[in-house]
């Protein structure tokens, strides 16, 4: 894997250290997460964040485990870091960091106090909500190490205030149980019981959200580090509190072995692919219903559109086809009226996308093509045919195939945003894209061809599917090319001066990246030509992928910043989306354009934000600072997939 390592120049300076984040997932949707400097900058940061009945319903438990080293002289040096609502940063333990590294996906810090060097490693037990934190004396000593446990038990999306009840901390052998929800275990536990008021999260402040939190100092562990190699370790776990995990050192060693196995199974061609393969593993989780995909950390859960868009990169490129098969079968069972269930982060099951089912068609087709698993294709054929039949007959939200041209139209209901550009501000879609969106119809053409091939593999008659495909392809070629030199983003869209569904209609020729799917999918409706693709690249391409709108287009927003309304308003109005690098690379390859240099920026990004991973979004304007989730499934999946195609 790529070398991710920082010295004191980054670790000891908050601008650098606190904007680089690490993630250690537990395989269930929970995680440990923080920054290189140790400063918690988000409400979502913590050492034990526990997934609930869905991956998105997470609770923060162990907030931090603050080290303090007591020297033989009696001097006590605090190695933790907190920012307070007053603006103070205290303690400032990051100023004693001499190195941070991410090795085999596990973070490691190294503090130096003169000749005393103390190292911290952290890992989670895969498949269990359990974190292990190991502190080791590297040189110097003897010293004593105190570890103060700051705790809470709250929804990860909200802060907590001290005007409510105190945390219920019950002593047990070797530690304590907090709120009956999670257990702490380590050496020489001493209860404390004190509120830490006004812990400040600078990233939440920047997002226009309430930034301050109160946490409960439950107590501290303490142990002696007398000679190099001695350790002081703490475990924290949820679930079955009576089932003691293995020793912390074993948890760390097991996590390291597993991460190496994940990388080896993916058979990476180079260090970047190895890094992306391990990053991809974070998003594949096991729930009570089977494998699923977390769309992004720290705040997203499972979303069917993201899951199916990510499918090839996360499962097929990582040699996880068996898990993928199980996932595809489970998602097929959620189909209703030709639409794939979209499990919202609120826990509700909704049917509110026009594209998730079409991406599902694509995912099954790719699975069978790549693996030769025709048994799965045969099994899912009736469900896939049901999608096509439902679109032909018409389904929810006015989604239907227009009998006049064989193309898919959508959005006949006010206030809906059914494509991946689904942001709303105060309930009003920013980009409703009512009519016939370009990428929806590219997916429709692609899906018809993929289903026809699966039908023929099963020995069925695909003549009608090929007829539908030919008609939609011809209509696509006639309708979507625009006089401005690229493809329309939407055709037959209601004119802005008329109410939704009114007339006359117009064809939207804003320069957006959705058209890339018209050239990039396996059964794409068009072949790309170099001049058109170069025009698209000139307006959209950045080091981290294509913008969602070109800078010279009406409504362009170059910064994805501010409060929720400002961020949602710019989400698809110029913000960069790294996942779109995959379709762009595929289209460029088909146009016989060079592609290797397209990965340079995103490869450098692996050490800049969410360490070893790819962010959800970035500013459209230079320097294209990352925004959104630091760890995003389809960003990682599409970069990994596009790189591996080079083989």
UniProtKB/TrEMBL annotation:
Every Glycogen debranching enzyme C-terminal domain range: 279-641
InterPro entries linked to this entry: 6-hairpin_glycosidase_sf, 6hp_glycosidase-like_sf, AGL/Gdb1, GDE_C, Glycogen_debranch_N
Region annotation Disordered: where it falls in the sequence: 547-568
Xref: Gene3D superfamilies: 1.50.10.10
Domain Glycogen debranching enzyme bacterial and archaeal type N-terminal: 20-226
Organism from which the protein derives: Micromonospora harpali
Protein name (Swiss-Prot/TrEMBL): Amylo-alpha-1,6-glucosidase
Pfam families cross-referenced by the UniProt entry: GDE_C, GDE_N
